[in-house]
Amino acid sequence: MFTIRRYTAADRTVWDHYVARARNATFLFFRNYMDYHADRFHDHSLLFYIGNHLHSVLPAHGKGDTFYSHFGLTYGGLLMDDNVTTAEVVHLFEELNDYLREQGFKHVLYRAIPWVYHRLPAEEDLYAMFWKCGARLQQRMSGTVIFLEENLRWRKDHRRRLKNAREAGLRVVRDGSLEEFWPVLEANLMQRFGQKPVHTLQEMTLLKSRFPENIIQYNAYLNDSIVGGITFYRMRHVLHGQYSGTNDVGKQTGAMEAIYHQVIYNGDFPECRYLDFGTSNEKGGLILNEGLIAHKEGYGGRTVMYDTYEWTL
């Protein structure tokens, strides 16, 4: 039924045109985003054709005998347009498994796209993996998402820090400087988690230059000195906080609260229905960072799963 082709650079335009119309894609799947770290991942993305018609695409990479979809991204499942049906996807996964065996793969790890990022429902892949692959849940991460239309009240401590921000005269700037924010972010992540940002400043600057409408930096200033910031990814109807950080002054004066209040209540993103704070887990979901998730829930966020499935070929 399907002709399966491995992606090459010659397919870039076809790939991007499909991503633009897919019902469950975000800008992370455009090749200008995926390929910024092509040196780190051995790309094995796939295009599925029925005759001459491009039916669907799968962002993926390979390492050894394992096929990943896609661990260089937050998620990376099968991308489908409005016309793809459940029966077709069931057949697709049968033929995908045959293809992967022929390519020498023995194991699959598949990161599904959380439903809040779907323009229309798009979980045909979950059913096909259950039926045709015997897939099991390998990892489950707790994402925290605000349903903006519900306008849940902030917890008392967040309201208090927002009051502090107003009294201190904090100034929030949209399209702020990444160069000013990145040292604050790096120091905050190292202090709290002993980690560095996934992206370097140079990589994020490059990506922002490629996607200026999708990557938006908010900074908070006290007396013209930066005290905190958030790097947002805008993806259709979802606003995702990719990075956030403050210094000690920002914590004391409510820099995060000032930025989130600006973003949520001042109409900066009227098309967005959800604000995704990302996950709050360690060790593949086996540990819940209760303090971190409580902080996010204090803004009115509730849990959406980031799931990874696996099966043996």
Give an overview in words:
With about 325 residues, this protein is of the alpha+beta class. Helix content is about 35%, strand content about 30%. The chain has ten helices and 17 strands. The protein has helices spanning about 10-20, 30-35, 85-100, 125-135, 155-170, 180-195, 200-210, 250-255, 255-265, 290-295, and strands at about 5, 40-45, 45-50, 55-60, 60-65, 65-70, 80, 105-110, 135-145, 170-175, 215-220, 225-235, 240-245, 275-280, 280, 285-290, 300-310. The strands form three sheets. The protein has an eleven-stranded mixed β-sheet with strand order 2-5-6-8-17-9-14-13-12-11-10. A four-stranded antiparallel β-sheet has the order 1-3-4-7, with helices on both faces.
Question: What is this entry, summarized?
Answer:
The protein has 313 residues and is α+β, with helices and mostly antiparallel strands. The protein has helices at 12-21, 31-34, 86-102, 124-133, 156-168, 178-193, 201-210, 248-253, 255-265, 290-297, and strands at 3-6, 42-43, 46-50, 53-58, 61-63, 66-69, 79-80, 107-111, 136-147, 171-174, 215-222, 225-235, 238-246, 274-279, 281-282, 287-288, 302-312. Helix 3 (86-102) packs across helix 4 and helix 5 (156-168) crosses helix 9 (255-265).
